[in-house]
Amino acid sequence: MPASIPHISRRLALYLAVLVTAAFALLTAAATPAHSARAAAAPVYQATGWKAGTAFGVYSLSPDPYTIVYADDTARTKLWKYYPQPASQITASVGVTVTATTGIDSTPLSQCPPYHRIIVHYEYRPAGSPGISWTNACHNAADGSAWGGHIRLDSEYWTNPAWFTTDPILNEGFRKDAAAHELGHILGLDHPNQDLDKDGVIEHRECVTSTAGRKPIMCSGNRGPMATTDAGRYTTEYDLPGLRQLLANYTLRQQP
Question: pTM of the prediction?
Answer without folding.
Answer: 0.84
